[in-house]
Design goal:
Strand content: 15-25%
CATH architecture of the largest domain: Orthogonal Bundle
CATH topology of the largest domain: Helix Hairpins
Order of helices and strands: HHHEEEEEHHEEEEEEEEEHH
């Protein structure tokens, strides 16, 4: 059997006496089975070397590309009681159309003329601000007038003071003169008395000198009295100057105090006015919350609080709403091991629930009923299910997605990667290795950049 000998061996001659060999070789069906198994084996070997497109498979659902176009719950801004519904479920509404009317429940807002009365309060407080400001301005004018009068009065009092001071100086000089005259008259009288005692002067001359002495004495006392009166007038002038200063300072201080009180009252009134203005604005805005309107063109899908007379809490959802105009997208969830292979702009083959399709994962060109999309975004953190969310939008360069697709429908996505032989893909799956990441050759990328 090892062909060591040069003599050939005839297999049929050797095995012709073997009954099992003769039985097998005598039947044509057995030969066909051998041929079939051999052909299948060869076909399997050929298939192992066929190209296979690696892919990442994930399930998801239809959503919208932009967050504001997704289904949303419309909430009530206030707590109240539902009084009327103006639409039915599934009805198309325009932006600003009234959907439901809610009446007030809180006792603080039950007054039907609440906005008008709060407006009157605000206007009254605004008028009080003007009154206080005018009072402060009048007091400021009064302070200016008092300041001018004080300056004039002080100048007048200072003049009186200077006049009295000079009068004191003048009277003091007169008094000193009178004292000197009296002393001279006294000396002259004494000399006249000695001469009279010696018999050299007559009694008449002595009496004349004595009269002159008395006149000098009278003059001295009169001038002294006048000097003391001038000093008293000087003291009064000094006191009057101090009184004028103190009086006007007191008046100006009181006017300033009244002005500051008026300004303080004006500021308090302004604070109360701002508070009332905010309250009035809140009342006005709150009155606009009684009617819940459509935020944009769309459909009222479902009423979450039904009936008339039901109460709704502040911030509670009233109905769900879907915009009429939106761009479809697919929300898929991929495994963490596949996330490094996800890139924005990568193509994804999509199969939608309810849409007939024949999918071959490894041969996308042979698939039927699938549509192409491109990855536009993916989360940087895992979702609650432990997978990463990937958002896929329609590819404008390929066939558009069906118009009958609806939000929330299921989908099956296949992200296409690198082409490898089938045997390599089987070996990778058995070993649990991630797919190969396809990178364009450096020359091809440079050519694209040059074209741009």
């Amino acid at each position: 059997m090892l062909n060591i000998s040069q003599n050939p061996i005839d297999r049929d001659e050797v095995l012709k006496n073997q009954s099992a060999y003769q039985e097998v070789m005598s039947k044509s069906a057995s030969r066909r089975l051998v041929y079939l198994l051999t052909g299948l084996f060869v076909l399997g070997i050929v298939i192992l070397f066929l190209p296979w497109t690696q892919n990442i498979r994930a399930t998801g659902k239809l959503t919208t590309l932009r967050p504001e176009n997704r289904e949303q719950a419309i909430h009530s801004m206030i707590s109240g009681r539902i009084e009327a519904w103006y639409v039915s479920e599934g009805q198309l509404v325009k932006q600003g159309d009234t959907i439901v009317f809610i009446s007030e429940m809180k006792s603080d807002y039950l007054d039907p003329q609440l906005v008008e009365r709060s407006t009157n309060q605000t206007n009254a407080k605004k008028a009080s601000i003007s009154a206080y400001q005018e009072k402060a301005q009048a007091l400021a004018d009064q302070i200016s007038a008092l300041t001018r009068n004080r300056r004039l009065k002080i100048e007048q009092a200072e003049n009186y003071y200077n006049q009295a001071r000079l009068k004191v100086v003048s009277d003091s000089i007169d008094f000193q003169t009178a004292v000197v005259n009296y002393e001279i008259a006294q000396k002259q009288f004494d000399r006249q008395q000695k001469l009279y005692d010696q018999g050299l002067k007559s009694l008449t001359e002595l009496e004349q000198r004595k009269q002159k002495l008395q006149e000098a004495r009278y003059k001295q006392v009169s001038v002294e009295n006048k000097w003391l009166a001038s000093k008293n007038a000087f003291i009064n002038a000094k006191l009057n100057l101090s009184i004028v200063r103190n009086d006007f300072s007191e008046k100006i201080a009181k006017a300033k105090s009244d002005r500051m009180s008026a300004l303080s009252s004006a500021l308090e009134a302004e604070g109360a006015f701002n508070k009332l203005s905010i309250q009035q604005s809140n009342y006005t805005r709150r009155s606009g919350f009684y009617y819940i309107t459509a935020p944009q063109d769309g459909y009222v899908t479902r009423a979450l609080i039904t009936g008339i007379g039901e109460t709704v809490k502040e911030g509670a959802p009233v109905f769900s709403f879907i915009p009429a105009n939106y761009e479809l997208a697919v929300e898929m969830f991929v495994r963490p091991i596949d996330l490094p292979l996800i890139q924005e702009g990568r193509k994804v083959q999509l199969q939608f629930d309810g849409w007939p399709a024949l999918v071959f994962n490894g041969w996308p060109g042979m698939s039927f009923g699938t549509f192409t999309g491109r990855i536009v975004a993916y989360d940087k953190a895992a979702s609650s299910n432990g997978k990463f969310r990937v958002l896929v939008a329609p590819d404008p360069e390929t066939e558009p997605w069906p118009k009958l697709l609806r939000l929330g429908s299921g989908s099956y996505g296949i992200a296409l990667l690198k082409n490898v032989p089938v045997w390599y893909e089987l070996w990778r799956d058995l070993n649990g290795f991630p797919p190969d990441f396809y990178m364009e050759p450096e020359g091809a990328s440079n050519i694209k950049k040059t074209k741009k």
